[in-house]
Design a protein that fits this description.
Keywords: Glycosidase, Hydrolase, Signal. The protein contains 2 helices and 23 strands. The chain has about 300 residues and is mainly β. It has a single domain, classed as Jelly Rolls (Sandwich), CATH 2.60.120.200.
């Protein structure tokens, strides 16, 4: 997984359809040519520009724990997120800021890009997570925050650094995918699958993917499926609306949450900790819909 594969930034057209190209990202400008775009990249973020594209990416700024007791203050500062050598870098740092002992960044495309069905894949090098660093590549329903969590639906494509992995000495290998939603009786329901990778994931880039159809959500590491759920049940209605992707590096959590490390002195991971994202690409299915700035294209 050492080589870097790039999509050329060019204009692409098919009959009755245009594709808009802006810096490192290109976007499907219409959904009317679905069959011809099946299994082809219809949107991508290549991170090849000089600066993060604020027309696509927005930041959640704050240090309130984000529902998990996280210890970092997430900022929109260039110290915590920037482009370097063709990759996005999200950097968690041990520094006092806003009343917190750490800083990091939490970035998303809500309002800029969302999609319904398709294969969303990212090439990511996770940081050394031991112990207390919690990187994630995930999605929320595009109706958030107007519709509260978990009724908006959540799909986690990559999480690593969990407390069970710490207990087993698998901090660098054990990942999970997950669905969180309002299930039967509108009660929070969580479905989680764990997978022990054959190598330490922080040493190189790897491919993390969700394949989302009207019937299933399937999750992959380097092309190997490690989680799958049928989403045809009425209780899974959250997963038939557009979602937007999120990238973040959290630090710590409540004892009952992901890392189980709830105070700064319990965080033993080497800092700064950097997650590198080479690219994110959406490949189309016959049912794929792409939304740019809230409008279907």
């Amino acid at each position: 997984m050492n080589s870097r594969h790039r999509q050329p930034a060019v204009f692409r057209f098919c009959v009755g359809i245009g594709v808009f190209v802006a810096s490192s990202a290109f976007f499907l400008a219409s959904a009317s040519c679905q069959e011809s775009t099946a299994n082809k990249v219809v949107w991508s973020e290549e991170f090849d520009g000089q600066a993060i594209d604020r027309n696509v990416w927005t930041y959640d700024v704050g240090g309130h724990g984000f529902g998990n007791g996280q210890l970092e203050f997430n900022t929109d500062r260039p110290e915590n997120s920037y482009l370097r050598d063709g990759s996005l870098v999200i950097e968690a740092r041990r520094e006092a800021y806003g009343g917190n002992a750490f800083t990091s960044a939490r970035m998303h495309t809500r309002g800029g890009f969302a999609f319904l069905y398709g294969d969303l894949e990212a090439r990511i090098k996770v940081p050394d997570t031991a112990d207390g660093i919690w990187p994630a590549f995930w999605m929320l329903g595009n109706n958030f925050p107007g519709t509260e969590w978990p009724k908006c639906g959540e799909a986690d494509i990559l999480e690593i650094g969990g407390k069970d992995a710490i207990a087993k000495g698998l901090q660098h290998r054990q990942i999970n995918c997950a669905l969180h939603f309002a299930g039967v009786g509108e009660q929070k329901t969580s479905l989680v699958e764990w997978y022990d990778a054959p190598q330490d994931l922080h040493l190189d880039y790897h491919l993390y993917k969700i394949s989302w159809t009207p019937t299933h959500m399937k999750f992959f590491l380097d092309g190997k499926e490690f989680g799958s759920w049928d989403i045809t049940s009425p209780e899974m209605k959250e997963y038939h609306q557009p979602f937007f992707p999120i990238l973040n590096v959290a630090v710590g959590s409540w004892p009952h949450s992901y890392t189980g490390l709830d105070t700064p002195e319990k965080i033993s991971a080497a800092l700064p900790a950097r997650m590198h994202v080479d690219w994110i690409r959406l490949s189309g299915h016959p049912n794929t819909k792409v939304y740019l700035r809230g409008q279907q294209r």
